[in-house]
Amino acid sequence: MASTPQAGIFALGTASHAYLELDIEEGAEGRALVEGVTSLREPRTTMGGVNLVAGFRPELWRAVAPDESPAELEGFNRPIAGANLIMPATQHDAVLWISGSAYDVVFDVARQAIAALRGVARIAEETSSWPYHHDRDLTGFIDGTENPTLIEAPDVAVIPEPSPGAGGSILLLQKWVHDATEWEAQPTARQEAVIGRNKLDSAELEDKPADSHVARTDQDVFGKIFRRNMPYGTVTDHGTMFVGFSSEQRRLVAMLESMAGATDGVRDALTFFATPLTGAFYFIPSIRGLTH
Description:
This protein is α+β, with helices and mostly antiparallel strands. The chain is 25% helix and 24% strand. Strand 3 (80-81) and strand 4 (86-87) form a beta hairpin.
């Protein structure tokens, strides 16, 4: 029986998002949290136009469903330290990513989910997101230029059969706050050098600097990932939610280490204008995994 991934991973075009990271309540068991999340409305379908993607801390999921767990997958349990940059580890026990056409329906479903899990889990981190000028992030550059197409994305993001955890995916979730004042003070040419792309059409610079964001996260080097990044925040406090899916955790870890300069001391130039506030890995089980 083939394992089907949670459909919301690939549901592009949604205008409103909520990311709810949860911790188990004192006295509750991990299995109770997994069963509570599983009992929410079916993640493989939309709920009134809203998609729900559910995931768990890898160690928790392995304890509950060892046969459905990828080997050696672990949570973001230690900070990643590099060249005067530390990416914090803020691992939680579960994540719910709710997305839809408008914030009112996302809001309602999020509140229903929280109520359903009361006594089992509490909200540890909550973030709301929305698209900015169709496909740009708050730096003004197009985000996800190297993303695979929806036809190719499952090959990149979903663990293949017959591997343990087949049909599931590994999610890296990070919140990055932007120093908008400092970034916007940079001339366009400097911004393009930091990113490694042309701002207007996202064409990669032929002479991109070695510390540019494109150079430090080169997917031809580290492997392909499927990104669902979104802007978050308010007018005065905002940034990017990095939402990256992969069938292999090592790709994601290697990219973070490269950005931090952990291996060669060369730090991603973008990290001088954006600071990571959170960091967590979650296993996103297949539909079969969730319902077994």
